[in-house]
Design a protein that fits this description.
Distance between the termini: 10 Å
Number of helices: 0
Order of helices and strands: EEEEEEEEEE
CATH class: Mainly Beta
Number of strands: 10
Radius of gyration: 15 Å
Number of domains: 1
CATH superfamily: Galactose-binding domain-like
Oligomer: single chain
CATH topology: Jelly Rolls
Length: 132
């Protein structure tokens, strides 16, 4: 998660206590005001027409209060409209669960991929791991 950035106001902490999904470490995040803040990453890859691009991550609650999150993958740049795909879920468990979304490139000209996890519930910790 060291290549990910976050919006001002988004709280982010990395924990390496052995309880990550597939390794020792995971990222925990929350938005204190439910302002639809996010953690995000630009991928320097020009999406190709007719191809699909999937973003997946493992998520769990860092506590017991349910949290709604939205995972979005954007096909951005160029002179054409942006394309995106999104998946929204409400997390209700402290067990790891996958969340994925797939964007299909319908036209050429995009210059980058942009992945985003948007927090839609305030003051609830969400743990993130194994982002692909």
């Amino acid at each position: 998660m060291d290549t990910w950035a976050w919006d001002p106001g988004e709280n982010v902490q990395v924990y390496c206590n052995g309880s990550g999904y597939g390794d020792l470490c995971f990222l925990e995040t929350n938005d204190s005001q439910a302002q639809a803040l996010s953690i995000h990453q630009n991928v320097p890859l020009g999406p190709l027409q007719g191809h699909s691009y999937q973003l997946c991550m493992q998520l769990r609650l860092g506590g017991t209060t349910p949290a709604t999150v939205q995972l979005v993958v954007w096909l951005r740049g160029g002179t054409i409209p942006q394309q995106s795909a999104q998946q929204t879920t409400t997390l209700t468990s402290s067990s790891w669960q996958p969340l994925c979304t797939v964007a299909y490139t319908q036209v050429s000209g995009h210059t980058q991929l942009y992945g985003q996890l948007i927090m839609q519930t305030s003051n609830v910790n969400v743990d993130v791991d194994q982002v692909t």
